[in-house]
Design goal:
It is a single chain. Helices cover 35% and strands 21% of the residues. It is of the alpha/beta class. It folds into three domains: 203 residues, 2-Layer Sandwich (Endonuclease, Chain A); 290 residues, 2-Layer Sandwich (polyphosphate kinase like); 170 residues, Endonuclease, Chain A (2-Layer Sandwich). Strands 15, 19, 20, 21, 22, 24, 25, 26, 27 and 28 form a ten-stranded mixed beta sheet that branches. Strands 11, 12, 13, 14, 16, 17, 18 and 23 form an eight-stranded mixed beta sheet that branches. A six-stranded mixed beta sheet has the order 2-4-3-8-9-10, sandwiched between helices. Helix 1 packs antiparallel against helix 2, helix 1 runs parallel beside helix 3 and helix 11 runs parallel beside helix 12. The chain is globular and about 90 Å long. The two termini are 12 Å apart.
Amino acid sequence: MSEPLEINDAAPAPAPAPDAAPVEAPDETFAVPTVEFEDDEPPAELPDDRYLDRELSWLAFNERVLDLAEDPHTPLLERARFLAIFASNLDEFFMVRVAGLKRRIAAGLAVPSATGMSATRQMEAIVERAHEIMDRHAEVFEEQVRPALANEGINIVRYDDLHESEQNRLRKLYRSDIFPVLTPLAVDPAHPFPYISGLSLNLAVEIRNPDTGKDHFARVKVPETLPRFLSVDATGHVGQVTDASSLSDEPRSFVPLEDVIAAHLDYLFPGMEVVDHYTFRVTRNEDVEVEEDDAENLLKAMEKELLRRRFGPAVRLEIADDLPEHVRELLVRELGITENDVFELPAPLDLTGLNLIADLDRPALQYPSFRPTTHHKLAPVETADEQNLFDAITRNDVLLHHPYDSFSTSVQSFLAQAAADPQVLAIKQTLYRTSGDSPIVDSLIEAAHAGKQVLALVEIKARFDEQRNISWARKLEEAGVHVVYGLVGLKTHCKLSLVVRQEKDGLHRYCHVGTGNYHPKTARLYEDYGLLTKDPDVGSDLTKLFNQLSGYAPKAKFRRLLVAPVSVRSGLIERIEREARNAAEGKEAWVKIKVNSAVDEKIIDALYRASRAGVKVDVNVRGICAVRPGVPGMSDNVRVRSILGRFLEHSRIYAFANDGDAEVYIGSADLMHRNLDRRIEALITVVDPQQKALLVENIDMAMSHQVTGWELGEDGGWDRTVTDGEGRRLRDMQETYIKRQPKRRAKGK
């Protein structure tokens, strides 16, 4: 176990429980006990305004991302990256959440939110807040990040700002590499208004026939297949930026692609007079819905739905602030949107392209390089080139903490060794998201080719990864892997791997249960936990759960797992209510939760009632949070903090004091309706005392005022704390873990 952090204002880690035993998790017949009150008096009613709005809370989360872009202590190129992340996040919010709300309003199916706000009023609030933060986003780029980049020799300029010699070189590049890709689309009686694809950047072009003097309108799409910026270095050399990491640190300018296209529109419309041009961008409803009950072949149904996604209704129009009123009216009319859906911004639009700038090879302007280390319990021994992971897991359960613990030398190696080991008879694996060149998929294929029984549960309904997962599903099937898609109506979101191995004393099952996807690339960027174990109870639980997912096993009971949609919500509420009873009896009682989102009303109400009973409740939430902390008489004992940084905090931890014998779970489930009601999720109880203490410590650190973070107020506002009372910069939680890793590694050896 690593040395404890000195966090004076955090609650202490739970005392070790030397004889901690596996906990029987509830099954589908589980009855949730209720808190007993003296004299049979019912608890005071909770107020109607006890929740924060889900959608506005999401916008507040994205504003915290913007805080990082605005912070001068964030390395400059990382500030550019956070601007790109903000833009990408907001794109998805409109494609899914706003689009869904619009669809329900149009269909007359919208109901008030949990806050009591009508759907129409909620939409008005979303639009108003979105305008505010999008304006701030543009301002941070234009007034802070762009000038700071220029001071470092990274100039994001307009075409007209270039010298004539540079423009001439760009003209040659345009004629050879850009012009052949472009397709101008006229709008007239013979040419109806063209379809504008979602998230595409476009030029609205006004042209005039010099012979007739008549004006016309045309649309030119900025090709997504070309780099967003073109590079001009100090020598005047120009080129496409396809790999920014290879560019040197000499001063250079970057010109938006649409500027270069706009400067040469006469090539697209010879014989016509180009009157003017303007940029605009459209966001469409791109959520996917498949009626599985009616689909004979889920893959074919999904592919058909993905095709339909391209033609979803428009939900947002971003326009450059120089676009004239008559063009604006044309776009609004033809796209079928309202004025509320129009967002007027300074050019350049679509700052997701700043990812290209953030990838420049300028280490001094980026986060310090970080290389994950092999977990000390899995590190190779002196006499061997590679540790036998099965031997290591047999000696001890291994609690992995990514990205600090290497994913490639733990989970990835675990499956690679399983595929190559002749003693392994079977591998069962869930795949929710994975990379395009996934070593995990390669290991499953290798295992199938070796004659092992291989089951892959591929979730092809993973949002925005549907096409990729369809591709992998077919590739796995062709290799002889048994591919299944889970249960009808439920997404399979749990992160599970099961390896069955023949050993001298019989069959043994090696398991991995995690909080993150089996995705080698995001494992370097996402903070997650995973447990490698040979525990027979976990092996039995995973066997039953995989049998449920691939066959018929509706009555399965689990010892160390809580499984949604049956027992995660009820199991968590039972444990919260147990803390309330313990607090009433003067026993040690607290609840510590770390999640990505917390919006489930039943669990939030349970936390409020526990707070009333005197239970200290700490919630570390990265994104959406409907909890209203610190409300007198309701949530006095509830605190909510948020941590954002260079890594995306993605793990889920649920910890309960349990009168000194702490009960701690990790897993895939957030406190959201979709996780608890419409997904297969799994939480596993961690039984090793040191591992439990490490998990509780993670939440305590996040809740400490000695590390930088955001605290949620009862009004829904988030206050960021970056310095102490004397103006000193607070510690960064993620940097603390980075600095700790070499010490853990050395101590393990």
